[in-house]
Amino acid sequence: xxxxxxxxxxxxxxxxxxxxxxxxxxxxxxxxxxxxxxxxxxxxxxxxxxxxxxxxxxxxxxxxxxxxxxxxxxxxxxxxxxxxxxxxxxxxxxxxxxxxxxxxxxxxxxxxxxxxxxxxxxxxxxxxxxxxxxxxxxxxxxxxxxxxxxxxxxxxxxxxxxxxxxxxxxxxxxxxxxxxxxxxxxxxxxxxxxxxxxxxxxxxxxxxxxxxxxxxxxxxxxxxxxxxxxxxxxxxxxxxxxxxxxxxxxxxxxxxxxxxxxxxxxxxxxxxxxxxxxxxxxxxxxxxxxxxxxxxxxxxxxxxxxxxxxxxxxxxxxxxxxxxxxxxxxxxxxxxxxxxxxxxxxxxxxxxxxxxxxxxxxxxxxxxxxxxxxxxxxxxxxxxxxxxxxxxxxxxxxxxxxxxxxxxxxxxxxxxxxxxxxxxxxxxxxxxxxxxxxxxxxxxxxxxxxxxxxxxxxxxxxxxxxxxxxxxxxxxxxxxxxxxxxxxxxxxxxxxxxxxxxxxxxxxxxxxxxxxx
Length: 517
Prior knowledge:
Helix content: over 70%
Strand content: 5-15%
Mean pLDDT: 78
Shape: rod-shaped
Largest sheet: 4 strands, antiparallel
Oligomer: single chain
Order of helices and strands: HHEHHHHHEEHHHHHHEHHH
């Protein structure tokens, strides 16, 4: 530890011996440095604060009606791209650099300078959207124009960028809508031509071939059932009328004989004779049986006509009158039922015709239905896409109107840029202090270096360390009074020079505080 202290003291004594070297270099560095600091041009910093309101009342009202864009993300992106080359060229143009600089190389240097010196800082708080733009230059008016230009470009990018994007989107949508409109008309023409070509073969609304076939089969089955029921009712009425006529034909319980009865009786006798000669399957026997059956039918008809004539004449007494009344009622009902049967038969025939016609088209109609479904699918898909494009175009138009009204994103300058009256830089106090420290450090370093280049044995420790021999003692030098006096005067001069250096530093600080502002 003692050796270390002795070594440090030795270094300090060496520096003190070469102190004039330190003083000369310190003064040289400080004078040159301070002159350089004083010649530095003043810098004027201009700043402005702007507020971007993305939480307007119009946003929730237009939600779902306009193109959804996150305004916070949009503002952040514009903030990051403000210092891109195109924006810097706009700022330089608005600030008037185009009139001052014609050289392309000088203009590029100015653009690089703007990019490095323009500072855009956000508030750092979420959703506060408070931004500060600063710029520093030796010309306060130019600095103000730069900040104003940066604010103008920032605002135009917020509003104009959206409008340009919306305009481009609307142009694209207009082109697509025109294209799909042509497609829609072509699809309509194809569908119309197909329906005209296959008129009468088109499926019913919401029904395909199988559904129509099942419907016609069901209609035919229902019609046949109703016709069968109507025929049964008609036959029943005919039987009732026949019974009523039989009662009408009986006088006092005896059946009235007609001339045709004799022919029937004669033919039945002939039939008996033939059956004796031939079998029941003989052609003559069959012919005779058919003739007898026809005559019996004719006899029934003659009896009916005869009974009807009696009923119309009113003959036959009170019993005949009762039978006549029943007959007339049955006759009316029979006429109604005959008309119903005829109507149902026509309906059944029509159902059967439709059913057979549809069955005959079994190889045609499914193909027609498939082609029609394809055409409808193409038409509906095109129309759906067309309607969607029209809806989106309306959304873009509404977004443009909202942007034009400046209600979607509001840009407000809270603190406009002002040209400062006092410079904000450079910080001469700090620089002069740094120069003073650098001068003193350089002087001390030079003195130490010279002392090391030309060493002196100023103590027993240094002699022992260099010679590596034992040192038994030392003799102190006794200086004459004149030498001591001279050393004191030189020390006072040295301290005075150091004081003058400090006073010069202080004076420069005062001058900087008073004169340069």
